[in-house]
Amino acid sequence: MYETLDEVPTNNSEQQDISTPLANMKVSILERYAQNLNDKEYVTDPAIGRDNEVKQAIMTLLTPEKSALLVGKAGTGKTAIVEGIAYRIQNKMVPIALQNKKIYKLNVTSLLGKTTVNGEAENRVDLLVKELSSKPDVVLFLDETHVLVNKEGGENGIDFANMFKAGLDRGDIKMIGATTDEEYEHYILRDRAFLRRFQKIDVAEVDQATCVKILMGTYPKIEKKTGVHFEYTDYVLERIMKFIVDMTDEYKRIYEISSRYPDICLTILSNAFTYALFDNEHVCKIKHIYKAICNARNVYDDAKKKAIEKFKVDFDDLIREEHVDLTDTD
Prior knowledge:
- It contains 14 helices and eight strands.
- Helix 11 crosses helix 12.
């Protein structure tokens, strides 16, 4: 799609009639700024352990004139829940009424600007609302939804939420929003008219057992992205995952970072694969897990020291089997 006349292609295969006014040329905010989550390749279900939240969101999307709002701490997996819905749409695991829906992910910050149409600058939110009203099969996923009602975050103090209200009221627009507890209370609760268009879905931090399942289900995706893989049995991998989950429980985390399950654990696991890549190896081994644990930045130093010593004991069999020199990995 083209946002200005200068962007119109002029080669013979795409020659445009010079008499065609720019107003007749469509401007798609979705194509330019959004990501179609239905088109993503999912190695595994992104929403492992979140069946209840996924069901609540699907039920909300089926409810006339209601949209879903995911509210939870940072790192609890709100985006994963939305990707889980897209995954289920791909695999025909949703009610028939949703099987033709397309979920587009769009960051609110992408809307903080204007686009030139027919020689005039138009607000991107206004253009987006018009586009969504003409595309009933689109579900918009807006992360950081609180920015819509935060006039200080808008352009020149514009209240973007008001631009969405009419479409949400009529059911012309279906949306999944996501925000943190603090931002929900500070911004969204203040705009009751905007809030009543949504069904709040609380996204609590998962428990340790569920977090282990998420790690076990997610590592194949990391393997595919990095080209590095594990060669351990599921039994050994579960031991490793349980250790990572245990060393990052609530009282061992650095408070200011505010990481939660599963994000705090996925960071350590991903870093282990990064160390393998750094060593030019295609297999993630126990020494790479050890390096990731030693260099974890979201755990208090005293808790990390205890975890390192416990790791040496718990995985002594693998350390000896792989002839790992731990003095060379700190």
